[in-house]
Structures are given as structure tokens and as C-alpha cells.
Design a protein that fits this description.
The complex is a heterodimer. By secondary structure, chain A is mostly helical. Chain A has two domains: 101 residues, Orthogonal Bundle (Rna Polymerase Sigma Factor, Chain: A), CATH 1.10.1740; 95 residues, Winged helix-like DNA-binding domain superfamily/Winged helix DNA-binding domain (Arc Repressor Mutant, subunit A), CATH 1.10.10. Chain A is built from nine helices and no strands. The chains are: A mainly alpha, B mainly alpha.
Chain lengths: 201, 342
Amino acid sequence: MSTPVEQTLIEQSRAGDLDSFNAIVEMYQGQVYAVALRMVRDAALAEDLAQEAFISAYRNLNQYRGGSFKSWLLRIARNATLDALRKSQRRPAESLDENIIAFEAELVSPEPNPAEAALNTELGDHIKEVMADLHPDQRMALVLIDVEGFSYEEAARTMAVSIGTVKSRLSRARGRMREALLADPELLPSQFRQVSEGAEQ
Amino acid sequence: MIFRWLSRDRGHLSREELSTYVDGGPGAPSEARVQAHLDACGASCAVELAGLRTTVAILRSIAPVEPPRSFALTAQMVADLPDGKPLGSPPPMRDAARRGGIPVYAPAAAAIAAAVVFALVLVGNLAGAIEQSGATARDASSATVAFSQAVELETVLEAPVAAGAPVAESAAPVAPAATPAPEIEVAVETERETVITESAAVAESKVAPEPEIESLVTDEPEDLEAPARAAAVPESADELAAAPSLAAEAETLAPLGTPQLLPDSGGDGEAVTTQDFEIAEDPAAAQSAAAPEPAADRAPQPVLVEDDGLDLPVWQILLGTGLAAIALALAALAAARRARRI
């Protein structure tokens, strides 16, 4: 369900108040952009996709029938990113890797030091590569739940699938990510290396 | 009961169950069940669970992304919206321009159109086949009735024909005039005048039958129509083939020394066509052919047209079914994709 503040802003936006809609944009633009960036791995394209998602949401605001506004908005962004991914697959000559930038996958460390920061950057690149190899549906489940902190219900509404499907996709994505991370235990932060050593034994 | 006990206490927890358990998501196995399973299973499931927890912890420690700019809409953006559509207008048809000019419904529409066209062709062929089958049945029944009538008349006319009455001499060329097969066309041409002039006599003689015939005709009025039909000149080979009574009567009435058409009554049940006629060049043979044969030898062939039924190709049915299925699938897919968006 949308919050009372959201509902008020939505009603005012439907009445033509652009400022009210922009207040909604400010609330969710971080998540919309993050999901787009982690899906397409291209900062410029992610910007375009995020902007396109908000414009599309503005134009179709009357079709919002209640429920979680965040899920409704993120579903628009998801559709835009999947369309972009399909286009990039149809036109491999315009690969996203040409102007790709590494999204910030650095781990939040309680005791940051140069060595840990470098390790985190390397681990971030490794995570990015593994995520790029995932199927887009599995990647979306992983990004929404494990990275962006969505609940299963929110992820299901955003992905327009059942909760069971979300659990299945998430489980497969986590399984592949787990295997990749434990295959390079030296990249793991020190507090996680013990687990990888136990797995090897 | 035993199965449930085995599956809960002895069977491995699936990776999906472990994954859901890590999050405490909906439908996750209970803590007691997981712990009991880990105690019974040993190290493998414990390592699996620990690895999952590590993976999730690393992913959740990824720093959040800050947007590089604000994505707030400006008045200019709203003014530049395509078609100037107002707020809340229906979504565009998947913006054909952005998708390379091909709307998402194009494949479904094309498949449906193909299926409709095919259905029309199929219905047309089916109707034609039914009509043809009905016409064939009607022709067969009428031909059988006419043939039986002609045989009856032939029996009645047996005595005059045997005496070489002019009726028999004049009626024979009628059939070749109607079906000029290449082999006999020249011969027919030389006698065309005779045919034309004598045909009138044939008709006249049949309209006014001899007294003994008249008495029979009077008893059965429908017999009057058979010779009249037989005397009429058929306009095409198909008409002749559809009415074998003409050929039968022509054979009966064939004069001496004239090309005679004999139906190839081999009893194979096929339709009589122009190729089934042969020229009896031997005058003796022609004379013998002109002579009436015993009725028992000339028993009518009741079935001259084979009913093939509806010959509908199987590939048309399969192709139509496949096209219809594809069309429905594409339409359903397009509708589902449409419903899932916004």
C-alpha cells in the first residue's frame, strides 16, 4: 500500500500538479536509478532509463490502481531495462561494454582502510561480473531483494510474478553467486574467509 | 505419515528452502526443522547454509547508488511529451518508433490475418467439395433413372429397330455430334448435315411413337420423358458423361455403316467419358452392334459414377490448425505482455 503522503501526492499529481509528482520522483529516484544501473551496467543508459521511467509513470498515473506505489514505479523501470537489454542482445555491435562503467559495488566496511578498500573494489568487480552472467530475471530478483532490500512481496509485484517464482529465481541466483564467491576466497573480507575454508574442507 | 516424517527429518532441505530460511521469507522452514535437519544431515547442509548467509551478507553490504542528477520532470519535458497527450492518457502502443517501427501486436495481427485467410479458403474448398459431391450424387441418381428408362424403352423398341426402322438410322450420329472426339471428328463432319436433317425425324418419331409403344407410354407417363431427353442433343462431353442414357440409346439406335460410339462398359464403375467411346469401323460389327441384344446381356450398370466423398487434404487441416494455434498463442502472449506492463 502507498503511504498517506504518497496518496496525497498522487492525487495532486493527477490534478496536474507537477511539483507533487516531482516530490515522488525525489523519493524514489535513487532506487529507480540503482536498479537500472545494476541491470544494464551502463551509467548513461541507466540515466536515460530512469528518466524514461518517470516520464512514463507521469503519463500513466491514472492507471495506478492502488497498492505499493514503489512496486508500480519500479515495474515501469524494470520493463524499460529489460527492453534495453533485449535491444542490446539484438544489436551486439552496440554492446554495453563499450561505455560501461563499474557501478559502485564497494562493500560498506565498518573499519575502512586502503587495503580493505582495494579488496572491496576487486570484490565489487567480481560480483559485477557474476551478476552480468546471470539471467536477467534472476539478476533482477537478486538486485531487488539482496541489494535493494525489497521484500519478497514487493519483488513479486515489481516483477509481476508469484512469490514462488521470486523464491526460485533468487535461490538460483544466490547459488551461482555463492559458488563464484567461494571459488575466490582471497577476495572475501576476512570475516567471511572462515566460511569458505569450511566449505573447502 | 512415514513419508512426511522421512521428508521432514531425513530428506535434504532444498537450496530454495535454505535460501528462504536465510531471509525468513514467506513459507520458510521453521527454525526447529532446520536445526533438526542440520543435526541429522551433518556438515554438508551446514556449509551450504553458511555459504548462503555469507553471500547474502556480502550482497547486502554493497554501497547504495546515488543518482548522478535529479530526474524531476520539467515543464519543458511535459510540453515535449509525444502527441501532446494530457496527463493520464492511455499508454502508447508500445511506441512503435522506439521499437524499430514494429508494434508489439504486429506478429499476432499477421498470424490472425493469415489464419482468417486460410479459414476462408478452407471454407470455400469445403463448400465446393460438398456442392460437387451433391451434384455428383444427383447426376448419378438421375443417370440411373434415365438409364433404366432407356432400357425399358429399348425393350419396347426392340422389334422396330431390328427391322431397320428409320428411327434407328437417324439417331445414331447424335452422340458423335455432341462429343466430337479427335479421332472421329472428321467422320462426324462429313455426316453433319445428315445428322442435322435426320435429328428432326428422330424427335418427331419419338414424340409420336408407334401404337404399341404408345400404349405402354400411356400406362407409364414418365416414360415419355426418357426418349425426349435422349433425343435432345447434349451440349458438352460432361453432359453426355452425366447422362449415360444418351450413349446407351445411341448404341441401341446406331445404323449400319455409320461411326458408332460404344460406351466402354467394362463394369469398372468409373464415370463415362469421351475417352471411353470407341469407333466401330467394321460395318459388320456395327451392324451387329446395331442389332438389339438380349435384355439380359444389356443389363444396366446401375452405378456409373463413383462417389469419392469429400476429398479434403489432411495437410490443409493440419496447416489450418497450426496457424490458428500460433495466432491464438501470439495473441495471448501479446495480451499477457500488455497486461503485465503498467
